[in-house]
């Protein structure tokens, strides 16, 4: 249980707090943003989401820099990412801030790639994340953060940055999923 793995576990432990902040109707007030309002609980959830997302970069950087990459970390890190992103996307649909079909598309891709990774792991093959996969994750985090903040600061000028970024995240998510399967189809084909 090294430091990067502890950071990853802390990210997983932040998810229930994030869920409570988004789900429980705390009456902490609202922040006016042009014609829209941002509940303070959503602001707190957005900050927590951004902090948790940042720990993904921190644990990976620290593990590589200090040669602390472990099998536990290889398992927990993508799991933590998928749990955090899936929880946020589902809550955004529940709050009416994201279209359900986009969220279903993104989460379906995550399940499919995770399945491919599990088959590969069973064959003793480790499938590393691609650069496109890293772009996918970055776009998802930016889109989710913007939507959690009810499109702040873009709400002041009426520019739908959050939803545009979510569409871009979905497109790169689908493309990166296709790329992942195209490059690694031999794993499925040759599995026992």
From TrEMBL:
Keywords: Cell membrane, Lipid biosynthesis, Lipid metabolism, Membrane, Phospholipid biosynthesis, Phospholipid metabolism, Transferase, Transmembrane, Transmembrane helix
InterPro entries, per the entry: CDP-alcohol_PTase-I, CDP-OH_P_trans, CDP-OH_PTrfase_TM_dom, CDP_ALCOHOL_P_TRANSF_CS, Phosphatidylglycerol_P_synth
Localization, UniProt: Cell membrane
Any one of the GO BP annotations: phosphatidylglycerol biosynthetic process
Membrane topology label: Multi-pass membrane protein
Annotated EC: 2.7.8.5
Top-level lineage group: Bacteria
Gene Ontology MF annotations: CDP-diacylglycerol-glycerol-3-phosphate 3-phosphatidyltransferase activity
Reactions catalysed according to its record: a CDP-1,2-diacyl-sn-glycerol + sn-glycerol 3-phosphate = a 1,2-diacyl-sn-glycero-3-phospho-(1'-sn-glycero-3'-phosphate) + CMP + H(+)
Major localization class: membrane
Segments crossing the lipid bilayer: 12-28, 40-62, 83-107, 154-181
Any one Gene Ontology cellular component term annotated for this protein: plasma membrane
Pathway involvement of the protein, from the record: Lipid metabolism; Phospholipid metabolism; phosphatidylglycerol biosynthesis; phosphatidylglycerol from CDP-diacylglycerol: step 1/2
General function of this protein: This protein catalyzes the committed step to the synthesis of the acidic phospholipids.
Similarity section: Belongs to the CDP-alcohol phosphatidyltransferase class-I family.
Protein's recorded name: CDP-diacylglycerol--glycerol-3-phosphate 3-phosphatidyltransferase
Phylogenetic lineage: Bacteria, Bacillati, Bacillota, Bacilli, Bacillales
